[in-house]
Amino acid sequence: MKNLVSWFKRLFMVPGLFALLLVASGCSGITVLDPKGPVARTQQELIIFSITLMSVIIIVVFVLFFYMIIRFRERPNWTDKDYDPHQHGNTTLEIIWTVIPFIIVAALSVPTVTSLYALEEPPEGSDQEPLVIHADTSNWKWYFSYPEQNIETVNYLHIPEDRPIEFKLSGADSMTALWIPALGGQKYNMAGMQNTLYLEAEEQGEFAGRNANYNGSGFAEHTFTVTSESEEDFNEWVSDIQNNAPELTKERFDQYLEPGLADEAEYSSTHLEYVDFGENDGRSYITDLYSGDLGEDVHLYGGEGGPWEEE
Amino acid sequence: MWDFIWNDFLVTGEPLIYGAMASIVLVTVLIVFVLTYFKLWKWLWDEYLTTVDHKKIGIMYIIAALAMLFRGGVDALMMRTQLALPGMNFLNSVHYNEIFTTHGTTMILFMAMPFIIGLMNVVVPLQIGARDVAFPFLNALSFWTFFFGAMLFNISFVIGGSPSAGWTSYVPMAGPELSPEINQNYYLLALQLSGIGTLATGINFLVTILRMRAPGMTLMKMPIFTWSALITSIIIIFAFPILTIALALMTMDRIFGTHFFTLAGEGMPMMWANLFWLWGHPEVYIVILPAFGVFSEVISTFARKQLFGYKAMVYAMCVIAGLSFVVWVHHFFTMGAGAGVNSLFSITTMLIAVPTGIKIFNWLGTMYKGRIRFNVPMLWALAFIPNFTIGGVTGVMLGMAAADYQYHNTYFLIAHFHGVLIAGTLFGMFAGLTYWYPKMFGHKMNEKIGKVSFWLTVIGFNITFLPQYFLGLMGMPRRTYTIEPEWMPLNLLSTIGAFILAGGFVIFVYNIYFSARYEPREKTGDAWDGRSLEWATTTPVPHYNFATVPYVNSHEAYWDMKETGATTYDESKLEPIHMPNYKGMPIIMSAIMFVASFGLVWHWFWLAIPGLIGVIICMVIRSFDYDEGYHVPIEEIKRTEEQARGRKE
After folding, report:
1. How far apart, in whole angstroms, are the C-alpha atoms of residue B118 and residue B430?
2. Which neighbouring-strand residues pair with A158?
3. Other C-beta atoms within 10 Å of B3: how many?
4. B168, B341, B368: best to mutate for the A interface, most A CBs within 10 A
5. Separation of alpha carbons B431 and B435, rounded Å
6. Do B263 and A33 touch (CB under 8 A)?
7. How many Cβ atoms are within 10 Å of A99's Cβ, its own excluded?
8. May I ask which residue range the UniProt record assigns to the signal sequence (chain A) (predicted)?
């Protein structure tokens, strides 16, 4: 039996040490815990707060657990001094362990609710108006339309740092989710309706963005890169596209809507002129166009940059 | 014709699939050969295929669950192999998507569900002193519809192609516009078919528990596992009709061209997500509450103490059941329902931690001042407590909607639900199976092999899933067929863990074989010094369970009986026992439903319509079946009991 108890101890030390090791290696590799903007920071603080409280619960349960199985295990010199088979409850204790979880839930609820309301507004601390970007998807591409600038990019995104971005999320077909973990949590893109998501970058740099919601065979490559840059660089980038990029014709855009992957591209007009997927009318646009052909799969092999074979 | 069979009907072009086809053919030939060679066909038909005995039906459920655990486990290993390293070329994206879809669907609906229903079948009537369930014919029908539903789902990967829209099957992706192939129909019709059985089981056990308890056994004197079965049955009855309707609506969309969930024609795709999780969240409590019941029984037995806070345990389960219906939105906080809605569902979700916490502390309290034996069933129950606590608190974290925007659709979520489903449901089912094994088969499972299997499983489980919490926070989405280089070390670790976990399962199954051959036969009927009525019967349990049903004074009926020396064989009270006859109809009727469903999958109305007519004919025949069963004569009871009890002394 002694052997067994030491086995138990060893068993639960392994994951413990392992977790410690990861925490010790720093949060730098853990994108969500290393926020690059105010939205992600709100969420990171909430996560750290909850991990702290939850650790207390885990410690209490683990301590009690090991106390019980070591103290009350059957062993060779076992005596019935501590054995009370008829003990079947203790009102005081039961009230305590009902009330304390209530208090913990309340403690978690308050910051959750305040954060929820805060995330529905542009992040505070910036005097600039949010930059509006329409982010639409179809299998398996991202279209970012900048209506004020009248430009559109495919599968990449440029944003000015320190300015709130107001994403208008929608999609042509499957439900997807815009997620830039370094900048903040995700929200769904759904055909026929529009979601608003506020994000902001406080640093310059490149961040990974992706569709987080599974949408079929091209899902793994349904990604984009986000470049956060100074306002001057951003404006320069915008005017470069306005002056040099081709217009996004309806024909060209309709081609994009066919299922498949696409390279990064930029255009000096937006698809919002032809269709707004955020409106109920936009919902049958793609089915009218490609009825019967939307089930096409793309067979991806070997990951990013790997050999892709389209069917 | 041949062109259709080769290109559309059969799945071709994948070496793995050819391997699967070959193994299916080989196994089928082997089974047919063994049955024929040993002349077992008649035995199989008479003893099992037509049985209405709850104990045998329970055993068949559990065998099916273990087979499905194997299938779902192979899926899991294939996925973990593909995700071990970046750039792996083991599965392509299309194949990977089919595998994770079948893994999820199989594990929840064709592994966890039959496992809990199997244990309920074996144990509940014995615990309440009943001779069978309330509707034995319906019980057999439940099993066979589940079984044929599972088969329909499983043939999809060689005939026609597996569904690939995830076990949640979200529209519009799974709808007729974006998935015009027939694959998705397998999901709809297989779940529909087995769902009939589950709903019938819920009704059956509700009536059984409410109407057929031993004299004196009031609700608050029921064993705790029976309580969990009762609450589970109630959840099934309220939740499964939602799934039935949702599946029917999507089936109509896909086969008859309606527009309930479609993109075009003013369908409402998001309604599917709501309906699915209105069923789906209660569903996860359907598979966890019976496991809680098992842990309560096992911990109390092996700590040799009464359950701590019996009433609190019952109320906690009731509260969990109630809350399970008002948290479904937490599966899609990111849908943009607004801060108010998300706040409400965050709070209801976190509130579930309160009754669950009460249960955890009551289990710890049960061990306090006990005398703990570390047999294999107890090891599973003990491992549950710390591991489930980790899975549970991460569930609370996921419940905080504002933070969930970062966890949603990531490996953090994967780690959480595997943490609760494996440490909760699977450990619970293994605890329950090893605990009641002597009652079911007349011998224990070998302890030494059982311990090896236990440690491999628990260690493998932690190595597999703890890294996934961190992968989620590093931005790794679920359902991706490939990984980024920076996620490599933790993924490799996770894959190694998965193979250790699989080793634990293989040894568990080997133990079934080993124990059947070498374990000493169980003679007492009370293998673990048990406390509830199932241990009062002899082993093997006579088909009528109890010769005489004892009067029950507490929720530990057999413990009291042992103190007063009472048995379930009181010669002065013997009466002929009314028992149901075995029926071939349930398996035949379910087989016809299978054929009809298969026809619908392929839009073959020439097959589906005669199939449905066949089902209706079966129902009519059944309605005019006046078979009232038979009575076991007193002499036979005497003979059986004296033989069993004579051996005991």
Report:
1. 12
2. A227
3. 8
4. B368
5. 6
6. no
7. 11
8. none
| Sites in chain B below the pLDDT cut of 70 | 647-649
Looking at residue A304, what is its pLDDT? 65
Q: What is the 3-state secondary structure (H, E, C) of B519-569?
A: CCECCCCCCCCCCCHHHHCCCCCCCCCCCCCCCCCCCCHHHHHHHHCCCCC
For residue A50, what is the nearest residue in chain B, using CA coordinates? B397
- Token duo for residue B330: 């937490």
Please tell me the predicted confidence (pLDDT) of residue A311.
42
- pLDDT tens-digit profile of A92-128? 999 999 999 999 999 999 999 999 999 999 998 878 8
- Contact partners, residue A147, CB within 8 Å, separation at least 6: A132, A134, A270, A272
Residue A7 predicted with pLDDT over 50: no
Say which residues have a Cβ less than 8 Å from residue B411's Cβ, sequence separation at least 6.
B468, B469, B471, B472, B476, B477, B478
| CB contact (8 A) between residue B369 and residue A117 | no
CB contact, 8 Å: B220 with chain A? no
Q: What is the pLDDT of residue A12?
A: 46
Strand partners, A166: A132, A198
Stated pTM of the model: 0.94
**Residue among B305, B393, B474 minimizing CB distance to A54:** B393
Please tell me the distance from the alpha carbon of residue B546 to that of residue B125, in angstroms, as a whole number.
Answer: 10
Looking at the partner chain, which of B170, B336, B374 has a beta carbon nearest the beta carbon of A4? B374
* B chain contacts of residue A123, beta-carbon cutoff 8 Å: none
Q: Give the pLDDT confidence score for residue A11 in this predicted structure.
A: 46
Closest CA to A299 of B162, B166, B92: B92
How many CB atoms within 10 Å of residue A211? Answer: 29
Q: Helices B310-323 and B269-302, interaxial angle, to 10°?
A: 170
Tell me if ipTM is over 0.85. Answer: yes
Do B452 and B135 touch, CB atoms closer than 8 A?
Answer: no
Q: Where are the domains of chain A?
A: 21-73+89-119, 131-291
Asked if residues B109 and B172 have their Cβ atoms less than 8 Å apart, the reply is no
How close are the terminal C-alpha atoms of chain A, in Å?
61
* Contact map slice: B 556-575 vs A, CB within 8 A: none
- Give the per-residue pLDDT at A22: 53
Dihedral pair phi/psi, residue A44, rounded to 5°? -65, -40
* Other beta carbons less than 10 A from residue B338's beta carbon: 11
Question: Looking at residue A29, what is its pLDDT?
Answer: 81
Query: Rounded to an integer, what distance in angstroms lies between the CA atom of residue B434 and that of residue B444?
Result: 7
Q: How far apart (Å, rounded) are the C-alpha atoms in residues A198 and A192?
A: 20
Residue type, A122: P
- Nearest CA of chain A to the CA of B150: how many Å? 24
Residue A2 has pLDDT above 50, yes or no: no
What CATH class has A21-73+89-119?
mainly alpha
Tens digits of residue pLDDT in A39-90? 999 999 999 999 999 999 999 999 999 999 999 999 888 888 888 888 888 8
Question: Which chain A residues are Cβ-neighbours of B467 within 8 angstroms?
Answer: 18
> What is A131-291's CATH superfamily?
Cupredoxins -  blue copper proteins (2.60.40.420)
Question: Which pair of tokens denotes residue B20?
Answer: 């699967």
Residues B101 and B166: beta-carbon distance below 8 Å: yes
Largest CA-CA distance found in chain A, in angstroms, rounded = 89
Q: CA-CA distance, B472 to A45, in Å (whole number)?
A: 17
What's B224-269 look like in SS3? HHHHHHHHHHHHHHHHHHHHHHHHHHHHHHHHHCCCCCCCCCCCCH
Residue B159 burial (10 A CB sphere; 0-12, 13-18, 19+) = buried
Burial class (CB in 10 A: 0-12, 13-18, 19+), A286: buried
